Structure to design on (207 residues):
């Protein structure tokens, strides 16, 4: 995976070459990722990153996301939803929100990403998930209004509910409050903007 080849860009999002995934993180080169948020009129869904992950193990993250390879179009990123969550969805079913940039510097890497953000109106139940266990260990959701307030910094905790899944088919219910420490360190207000887009553009609700 670290040797996968991705496109490399300058800060104006003009392609300037290619590099391995390991190299872009080591040198802080700009590259593209695909984000797909599962949402419905009431909830936004998050994945729990596997404890085996090198970066941010066990933290809450975008429902499905991944790096776009040099040979892929942005729409090809939809494969991440199948790979990580086991959901078969088509590109015409997702709603394009747009592109945003994100920089996260941690002790392991400098991650400079152009993120292509999509949302998917999720109408299924918890049984529809078949998780890729080395990537994802569970799926949880939070109420849209509560999540918006939390990611705007108006509340200190967010109530989540969902399941941790195990390779033998068992699952354990999760119901608990979480703080920002349990989430990937996104760019400030990124998730709040996703929720506002979902409420206004997809479900005609005012924030």
């Amino acid at each position: 995976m670290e040797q996968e080849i991705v496109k490399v860009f300058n800060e104006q999002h003009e392609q300037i070459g290619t590099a391995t995934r390991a190299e872009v993180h080591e040198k802080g080169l700009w590259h593209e990722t695909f984000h797909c948020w599962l949402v419905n009129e009431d909830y936004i869904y998050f994945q729990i990153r596997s404890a085996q992950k090198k970066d941010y193990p066990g933290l809450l993250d975008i429902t499905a996301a991944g790096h776009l390879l040099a040979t892929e179009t942005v729409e090809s990123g939809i494969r991440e939803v199948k790979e990580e969550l086991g959901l078969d969805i088509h590109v015409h079913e997702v709603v394009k929100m747009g592109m945003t940039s994100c920089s996260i510097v941690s002790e392991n890497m400098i991650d400079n990403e152009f993120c292509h953000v999509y949302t998917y109106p999720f109408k299924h139940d918890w049984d529809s998930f078949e998780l890729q266990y080395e990537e994802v260990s569970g799926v949880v959701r939070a109420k849209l209004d509560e999540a918006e307030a939390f990611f705007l910094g108006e509340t200190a905790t967010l109530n989540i509910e969902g399941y941790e899944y195990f390779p033998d088919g068992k699952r354990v219910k999760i119901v608990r409050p979480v703080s920002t420490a349990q989430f990937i360190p996104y760019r400030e207000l990124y998730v709040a903007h996703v929720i506002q887009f979902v409420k206004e553009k997809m479900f005609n609700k005012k924030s």
User: Anything to note?
Assistant: The longest strand covers residues 110-121. The longest helix spans residues 190-202. DSSP finds four helices and eleven strands in the chain. Residues 85 and 139 are 9 Å apart (CA to CA).
